[in-house]
Amino acid sequence: MAGQVVDYLSGFLTALPDAPLADLSVPHELLADPDLRRPPPEDGRALGELLAVVDRAARPGLNPASPGYFAFIPGSGLVSAGLADLVADVLNRYTGMAAPAPGLVALETDVLRWLADVVGLPTSAGGLLTSGGSIATLSALITARHARLGEDFLAGTLYATDQVHHAVVKAARLAGFPTGAVRIVPTDAGLHMDVGALAAAVAADRAAGRVPFCVVGSAGTTNTGTVDPLPQIADLCAREDLWFHVDGAYGGAFALTERGARRLRGMERADSVVLDPHKSLFLPFGTGALLVRDVAALRAAHSGDQDEAGYLHDLDELELPDFAALGPELTRDTRGLRLWLPLHLHGVAAFRAALDEKLDLAAAAYALLRDVDALTLLGPPELSTIAFHCSGPGTPEEVDARTAELLRRVNAEGRVFLASTRVRGRRLGRLCVLNHRTDRARLDEAVSALTRHAKALAAP
Ligand SMILES: *Cc1c(COP(=O)(O)O)cnc(C)c1O
């Protein structure tokens, strides 16, 4: 069976560079196909037949594993992580607590320690791997809430810009906060948090009887890859005794590189940091990470009353963390292996080089597109994302429509796929370089298609 699966995946990977990138037409025919959408049969079918069904089912939609994928925040799907998953799933050891699988929990703990070192957090830090950035953010805000507000938290107020990922606002709601608890802090012309305005908002809220408790800084926004002024936010949080959370789901891992570490300075002062290895460490979807400066605060917010759980009593506590006491899950997959195996197999230098290459490619795209009169660029990339719109005459609506048409034409060629976003009411095209398979040749294809179509759209 494994051989058949490997053959199928080899074919997928061989075809991947030229495979379709995006088909967003709704595949009514496929979705209604009775051969595909059968109830599970009483007697099984051949694996080969089923892999063919999976292959057809995987065709429509988007293909973030492709080197031509520059939309949203690209995924990658490191094959070695997939192999680690296979091993972990078949071994099927229980890692919710340390005692049933101390060796595997130790490997995962070492990976978390390495991540904390990349971010620059002290030895008091700890955390856990989650299914993604959203769940990690939820646990971060619950920890901040528990540490700073206790049980009577409805007057608590947290601060973020309008560029913050919506996962933060959603997490605040899930953590029990009323809608008004999230204060939107203005941004400067470059979309960075205005720390003067933040200080003013905190003071005004205190005067009005609210309880400021947390500031969320972005270590790379999803819209434009903008990094908030983290050192200044850290200063304000220290002065005002606020929990400093950094959302590094897109950008945090760039701290592995020299340039990234420079741009992300201040992240090491956070009380909690979210990373998303399924974005910027190229892993398959399903891997986020939460790191908390004082792991005791994370534990205090999440550990249930385990004395009440009679069925857990046979398990002694070890020097290792019980991940179930640090997050919402009890039973979980052996998530650590999918990070541990690739890191040890390829070496950290390979990850650093890949991230450096993404920074280089984004800088190269900026340098080339900056000189195209038909395009207006937002600014040099702070990480690996550039944002742009069409130049030239017309109302904002007309320019927005031209930018949308530009992306439509570029995407229609089928070699690259870009998506747009809305910032301050305007449509921006985005080029986010993050897939580990994206190389200079494919970036040049994107740049040349953007240049060609932008010029054609600008011609009277
Ligand atoms: C993707 C993203 C999130 C949400 O993470 P998921 O892994 O999609 O749940 C949060 N913040 C930022 C900046 C992101 O890019």
From TrEMBL:
UniProt xrefs under SUPFAM superfamilies: PLP-dependent transferases (SSF53383)
Transmembrane residue ranges: none
GO molecular function annotation: transaminase activity
Source organism, top-level taxon: Bacteria
Cofactor(s) listed: pyridoxal 5'-phosphate
Record keywords, A-Z: Aminotransferase, Decarboxylase, Lyase, Pyridoxal phosphate, Transferase
InterPro entries in alphabetical order: Aromatic_deC, PyrdxlP-dep_de-COase, PyrdxlP-dep_Trfase, PyrdxlP-dep_Trfase_major, PyrdxlP-dep_Trfase_small
Family named by the database record: Belongs to the group II decarboxylase family.
Record's protein name: Aminotransferase class V-fold PLP-dependent enzyme
Organism, scientific name: Pseudonocardia humida
